[in-house]
């Protein structure tokens, strides 16, 4: 999933990636009764993120799958996700690729702040407090029209 989005979005920032993963898992769960990644998502100030996301990204960096490049844009520190390999063939099902493509198309023109703000309107985010896990049951309330 991370490689998929980082390959399609050459300037993908970590904050936006976290929201893309959340929406992909939630929509896949809504349509198939199971998440794509198996990750749990936590309520954090900038929106839902995979629980322990730093460990996940550290492991992906160690395995030369992706790495994070930090750069500064004025007063803002930005963390860009850089892919180091191609998406392996046969790992994602057609149904998973379909959901990833739909999520990409929905949010391709959103910046990190926009997708973060968008995610703050979701019922699952609003029903939880900082640090709490957002139940996949809230996936049923997500509408991405």
Structural notes for this entry:
The protein has 145 residues and is of the alpha+beta class. The protein contains six helices and five strands. The protein has helices at 2-8, 14-32, 53-62, 94-107, 112-119, 123-126, and strands at residues 41-44, 47-50, 66-73, 76-83, 133-134. The strands form two sheets. It has a three-stranded antiparallel beta sheet with strand order 2-1-5. Helix 2 (14-32) crosses helix 4 and helix 2 (14-32) packs across helix 5. It is globular and about 35 Å long.
E-strand count = 5
Q: How many H/I helical runs?
A: 6
Low-confidence stretches: none
Radius of gyration: 15 Å
Taking strands numbered 1, 2, ... along the chain, how are they ordered across the largest sheet? 2-1-5
Overall mean confidence score, pLDDT: 96
What structural class is derived from the secondary structure elements?
alpha+beta
In whole angstroms, the N-to-C terminal distance is 22 Å
Proportion of beta-strand residues: 15-25%
Percent helix range:
40-55%
Q: Estimate the global geometry from the Cα principal axes.
A: globular
Q: Which sheet architecture does the biggest sheet show? A: 3 strands, antiparallel
Order of helices and strands: HHEEHEEHHHE
Write the layout of secondary structure elements.
Elements: H1 2-8, H2 14-32, E1 41-44, E2 47-50, H3 53-62, E3 66-73, E4 76-83, H4 94-107, H5 112-119, H6 123-126, E5 133-134
Antiparallel strand pairs: 1-2, 1-5, 3-4
Helix pairs in contact: 2-4, 2-5
């Amino acid at each position: 999933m991370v490689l998929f989005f980082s390959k399609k979005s050459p300037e993908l920032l970590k904050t936006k990636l976290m929201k893309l993963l959340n929406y992909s898992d939630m929509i896949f769960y809504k349509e198939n009764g199971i998440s794509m990644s198996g990750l749990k998502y936590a309520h954090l100030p900038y929106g839902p993120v995979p629980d322990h996301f730093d460990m996940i990204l550290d492991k992906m960096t160690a395995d030369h799958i992706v790495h994070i490049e930090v750069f500064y844009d004025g007063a803002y520190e930005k963390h860009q996700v850089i892919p180091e390999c191609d998406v392996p063939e046969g790992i994602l099902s057609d149904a998973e690729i379909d959901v990833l493509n739909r999520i990409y198309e929905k949010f391709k023109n959103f910046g990190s702040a926009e997708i973060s703000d968008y995610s703050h309107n979701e019922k699952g985010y609003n029903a939880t407090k900082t640090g709490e896990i957002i139940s996949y049951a809230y996936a049923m309330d997500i509408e991405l029209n």
